[in-house]
């Protein structure tokens, strides 16, 4: 079981990926974001997740540079993820989007690059581009985001390389049981976005009661539940106190009864778009 903040899972290709990281969705470019990354890395986070569409890759890159300098870290000590946006899905356009992301981040390579959404008729060409970047040694690992089982089967049908990661909405109201079982069986690491359901679960009575038994916050209980399900998780925060609280989940373990009870909160409820029905 995950023992500390720098514990890693090994992806199908042997690359190590931290179980826990910082997400920066809906955080604008600027000092607040730079400082959030500095706080996270100083506390021990080693994984940062962004995306082209977040419009904040420049500040993420700046935060990474400052954090590395302040903590005496090398580039290979950090795990950096970004994602190609829907408008750029296509073979040549995905290759170009990768260069744009790298240049905004000011990095020579990414640890993980994901197709952000499964846009019908487009993601297979994008996947070929990711395979090329990967084979050329430009990315350590490649994957997808918001892919359902049928999308995964479809992309793998003509692929030379299987996606190594699938990053999806995952929380106690959307437990994704079938998807988790399928990815696990295929050797694809599942990763959670919006693990706290954008804050909507923080006052849930059942979770509040469980948290009280462990002397932990509801957020800590949910994030621990993710890890015990073998799901990589990247909660978003810009506040130093919350960044530290979110990562203070390695000193307790949820019982099987409590894991089951949390699983029982599932309602197949999404806060984000439905991967089978989105129009952007």
From TrEMBL:
Residue ranges annotated for the NADP-dependent oxidoreductase domain, each copy included: 31-266
CDD domains with a match to the protein in the record: AKR_AKR5G1-3
Taxonomically, the superkingdom here is Bacteria
User: What are the entry keywords?
Assistant: Oxidoreductase
Annotated active site = 54 (proton donor)
Tell me which Gene3D superfamilies the record gives: NADP-dependent oxidoreductase domain
Sorted alphabetically, which Pfam families does this protein's record hold? Aldo_ket_red (PF00248)
Please verify whether the record's keywords include Oxidoreductase. Answer: yes
GO terms for MF? oxidoreductase activity
Q: Where is this site: Lowers pKa of active site Tyr?
A: 83
Q: Which residues bind substrate?
A: 116
For this protein, the record's PANTHER family field holds: 2,5-DIKETO-D-GLUCONIC ACID REDUCTASE
- Recorded family membership: Belongs to the aldo/keto reductase family.
Name assigned to this protein:
Aldo/keto reductase
**Source organism phylogeny:** Bacteria, Bacillati, Bacillota, Bacilli, Bacillales
């Amino acid at each position: 079981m995950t023992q500390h903040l720098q514990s890693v899972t090994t992806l199908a290709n042997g690359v190590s990926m931290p179980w826990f990281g910082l997400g920066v969705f809906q955080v604008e470019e600027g000092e607040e974001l730079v400082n959030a990354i500095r706080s996270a890395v100083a506390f021990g986070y080693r994984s940062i997740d962004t995306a082209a569409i977040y419009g904040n890759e420049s500040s993420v890159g700046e935060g990474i540079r400052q954090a590395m300098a302040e903590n005496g870290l090398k580039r290979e000590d950090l795990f950096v993820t970004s994602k190609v946006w829907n408008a750029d899905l296509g073979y040549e356009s995905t290759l170009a989007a990768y260069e744009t992301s790298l240049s905004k981040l000011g990095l020579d390579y990414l640890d993980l690059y994901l197709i952000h959404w499964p846009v019908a008729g487009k993601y297979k060409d994008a996947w070929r581009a990711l395979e090329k970047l990967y084979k050329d040694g430009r990315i350590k690992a490649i994957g997808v985001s918001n892919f359902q089982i049928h999308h995964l089967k479809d992309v793998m049908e003509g692929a030379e390389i299987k996606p190594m990661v699938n990053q999806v909405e995952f929380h106690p109201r959307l437990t994704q049981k079938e998807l988790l079982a399928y990815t696990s069986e295929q050797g694809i690491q599942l990763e959670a976005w919006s693990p706290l359901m954008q804050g909507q679960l923080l006052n849930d009575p059942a979770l509040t009661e469980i948290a009280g038994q462990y002397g932990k916050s509801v957020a800590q209980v949910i994030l621990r539940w993710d890890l015990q399900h073998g799901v990589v998780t990247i909660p978003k925060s810009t506040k130093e106190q919350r960044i530290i609280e979110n990562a203070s989940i390695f000193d307790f373990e949820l019982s099987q009864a409590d894991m089951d009870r949390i699983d029982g909160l599932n309602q197949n409820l999404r806060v984000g778009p439905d991967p089978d029905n989105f129009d952007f």
